[in-house]
Amino acid sequence: MNNKDLNEFKKILNEKKDILLKSVDHKKQKDLQEPVVGDEIDAAGDSEEKELIFGLTDNERVMLDSIESALHKIEHNKYGICERCTCKIPIERLKAMPYARYCIKCQPKFEPKK
Ligand SMILES: [Zn+2]
Question: Residue 33 Cα, ligand 1 centroid: separation in angstroms?
Answer without folding.
Answer: 45
